[in-house]
């Protein structure tokens, strides 16, 4: 099987610092500033090539998300926080236990006698499932990575990043005043991978804010995958 160089994830992560940044992140003093994601060299060795279907934006996005998370989770960078996954798993398992317990009770107990408990179990199951859906949509949203790290230099400094991603659909460039003279078929902009990053740097158990910023960038998927859907092959 073909192998890929470890610069694929780093190339995707560089989109965070792209030209479409909305707010620059302040640069803290050197003694307190640990290595940044873009200052590290690619990992030595090789990795398996990632192959996706170029016609599936879901596959393209998931592959990019995995690469970014793999890169930012390096030991010298950030420790990933799985809070959103833990909450969804807890709600999911709780609803499974409620459904299983309700079904078992209805099987063991006579129908008329078990109706109040079965109804209560059904309502509780629906509430848990509804809560899980609301949490995924309104709280977790497009978040794909939450990382945290602490630096010890005269004081304890905590850094936290939250990374969100989404796919920008195919679009067409805005019409200009010279559009009448342009060809009827304008070249479309292919689907793009959009990243948004929020950075918070604090100390004294998050009581003293040192720096805070946001940045975002977009890049076409063709920047990360070749015509056959491979990432990291042939310099891609």
Instruction: Count all strands and give the number.
Output: 9
Q: Report Rg.
A: 24 Å
Tally of domains: 2
State which percent range the strand residues make up. 25-35%
**Termini gap:** 17 Å
The largest beta-sheet arranges its strands as 4-5-6-7-8
Instruction: Figure out the total of helices.
Output: 4
Biased composition (Pro residues): 26-37
Organism: Mycena venus
InterPro entries: Spc2/SPCS2 (IPR009582)
Keywords: Endoplasmic reticulum, Membrane, Transmembrane, Transmembrane helix
Question: What structural keywords apply?
Answer:
5-stranded antiparallel beta sheet, disordered N terminus, two-stranded antiparallel sheet, 4 helices, extended, 25% strand, endoplasmic reticulum, alpha+beta, 236 residues
Question: What does this 3D model show about the protein?
Answer:
It is found in: Endoplasmic reticulum membrane. Residues 1-45 are annotated as: Disordered. This is Signal peptidase complex subunit 2. Belongs to the SPCS2 family. The structure is a single chain. It is built from four helices and nine strands; from the N terminus they run E-H-E-E-H-E-H-H-E-E-E-E-E. It is of the alpha+beta class and 236 residues long. It has two domains: 3-80 and 146-173 and 190-231, no CATH class; 87-135. The strands form three sheets. A five-stranded antiparallel β-sheet has the order 4-5-6-7-8, covered by helices on one side. A two-stranded antiparallel sheet has the order 1-2. Helix 1 (7-13) packs across helix 2 (57-72) and helix 3 runs antiparallel to helix 4. The longest helix has 30 residues, at 111-140. It is extended and about 65 Å long. 17% of the residues are buried.
């Amino acid at each position: 099987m073909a192998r890929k160089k470890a610069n694929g994830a780093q190339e995707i992560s560089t989109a965070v610092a792209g030209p479409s940044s909305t707010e620059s992140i302040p640069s803290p003093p050197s003694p307190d500033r640990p290595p940044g994601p873009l200052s590290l060299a690619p990992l030595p060795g090789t990795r398996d090539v990632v192959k996706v279907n170029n016609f599936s934006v879901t596959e393209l996005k998931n592959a990019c998300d995995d690469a970014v998370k793999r890169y930012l989770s390096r030991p010298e960078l950030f420790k990933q926080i799985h809070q959103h996954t833990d909450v969804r798993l807890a709600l999911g398992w709780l609803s499974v236990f409620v459904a299983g317990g309700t079904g078992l009770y209805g099987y063991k107990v006579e129908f008329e006698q078990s109706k109040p408990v079965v109804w209560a179990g059904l309502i509780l199951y629906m509430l848990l499932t509804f809560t899980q859906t609301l949490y995924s949509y309104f709280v977790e949203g497009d978040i794909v990575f939450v990382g945290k790290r602490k630096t010890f230099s005269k004081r304890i400094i905590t850094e936290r990043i939250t990374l969100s991603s989404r796919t920008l659909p195919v679009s067409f460039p805005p019409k200009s005043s010279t559009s009448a003279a342009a060809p009827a078929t304008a070249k479309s902009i292919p689907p793009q991978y959009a990243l948004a990053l929020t950075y918070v740097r604090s100390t004294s158990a998050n009581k003293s804010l040192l720096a805070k910023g946001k940045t975002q960038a977009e890049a076409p998927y063709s920047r990360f995958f070749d015509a056959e859907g491979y990432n990291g092959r042939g310099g891609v």
